[in-house]
Design a protein that fits this description.
The protein is of the alpha/beta class. The protein is built from 10 helices and 9 strands. Helices cover 45% and strands 17% of the residues. The protein has a 9-stranded mixed beta sheet, sandwiched between helices. Helix 2 links the parallel strand 2 and strand 3.
Length: 351
């Protein structure tokens, strides 16, 4: 009895990429042709609320080539939500995530699949070189990964991004994470599983502009640290010492002036200023950190969907039976929602 052919699905987040999509389709079709001897390949493009012609190009490609399918969000929910939608909705024995800007060469998918076929559950694509990026971005990225690996309960190698392959077992494990503020590459590092690394040289953008400017990168880094570590809360002890030190030195200085040089200060002035500045600055800092965590607790308690699907192109994705997705697809559109958590229990009908 022959084993059935294994399937690999490629998840591609898309946001305002009309300038680069035609080139991406051409290179991705070539990769699917090369994958044919190894497995069956399908591409799912997740349109994250694009305002340009991206969705029109996706639907046209899905009509021309059955190996391409499209999922369109009702609005922009973010890159991590688009990846989560793929993990929640797309079938396949293995799922690959890659961006459509062609900075990550689609041809590397061949190497990821070969490593997966050797028995690895997680295959990470690590950037060996990064063309077209500023020294500031490279330096801050390196600093971020060094910090994250020291303080977080996750193993994210330097140079890792969202270009990876996950075996179905790893995908099902990832789908059990209920949080809405997601840093997917950190969650993948937290899970463990047998993994391997494939190195590649990252290319400059073919067309269009980056979708991760400075402030979005800061927000992503904040999500990563807050969701994977409680270190910012523990830092209160160290900050208390740091903030107290200069004021204690100043207190010693005023004491020496008073005792040895008989310089009189306004009675009570030193103690009031020291107490006000010390406790005021420290409390404001810690309130900000606590607010960051409480805000995320508030967001999680609301249990809003991570994404909403408005429409699909090509053959509609058939989510695994445990997917938290509700859909009522009309003839040419579908609506769905994904919460990222396990499905609610099915009510038992009365006897």
């Amino acid at each position: 009895m022959t084993n059935p052919r294994r399937t690999v699905a490629v998840i591609v987040p898309v946001f305002n990429e009309e300038a680069v999509l035609p080139a991406f389709f051409g290179r991705m079709a070539g990769v699917l042709d090369r994958l044919a001897p190894l497995c069956d390949g399908t591409v799912y493009l997740v349109d994250d609320g694009s305002r340009d012609a991206s969705w029109r190009l996706i639907t046209a490609q899905a009509a021309a080539d059955h190996r391409f399918r499209g999922i369109r969000f009702s609005r922009n929910f973010g890159h991590q939500a688009a990846i989560s939608a793929g993990y929640g909705m797309v079938p396949g024995d293995a799922l690959v995530t890659i961006d459509s800007d062609l900075q990550d060469p689609p041809e590397v998918i061949i190497d990821l699949v070969k490593s997966w076929q050797e028995g690895n559950k997680v295959v990470l694509a690590i950037r060996r070189k990064r063309e077209g990026e500023t020294w500031f971005k490279l330096w801050t990225a390196r600093l971020f990964y060094l910090l994250l690996n020291r303080i977080a309960e996750s193993d994210a190698p330097e140079g890792v991004g969202d270009f990876r392959l996950l075996d179905r077992q790893a995908v099902e494990a990832l789908r059990q994470f209920p949080e809405s503020h997601r840093y997917v590459r950190g969650l993948v590092g937290w899970m463990g599983f047998r993994r391997s690394i494939v190195e590649y040289d990252r290319e400059a953008r073919v067309a269009g502009e980056t979708k991760y400017p400075f402030f979005k990168m800061v927000r992503l880094a904040t999500d990563a640290i807050v969701s994977l570590s409680s270190f910012p809360l523990r830092i209160a002890y160290a900050l208390a010492v740091v903030l107290m030190s200069p004021f204690l030195i100043y207190l010693v200085y005023t004491f020496i002036l008073h005792v040895f040089y008989h310089k009189e200060l306004v009675q009570g002035w030193t103690s009031i200023i020291l107490a006000t500045i010390l406790f005021g600055s420290f409390n404001l800092l810690m309130l900000g950190i606590l607010g960051e965590y409480i805000g995320r607790i508030y967001s999680e308690v609301k249990r809003r969907p991570i994404f909403l699907v408005e429409e699909v192109a090509g053959e509609a994705p058939a989510p695994p039976p445990t997917a938290t997705i509700t859909s009522t697809p009309p003839a040419s559109a579908a609506t769905a929602s994904g919460t990222g958590g396990p499905p609610p229990p099915t009510p038992t009908p009365p006897a």
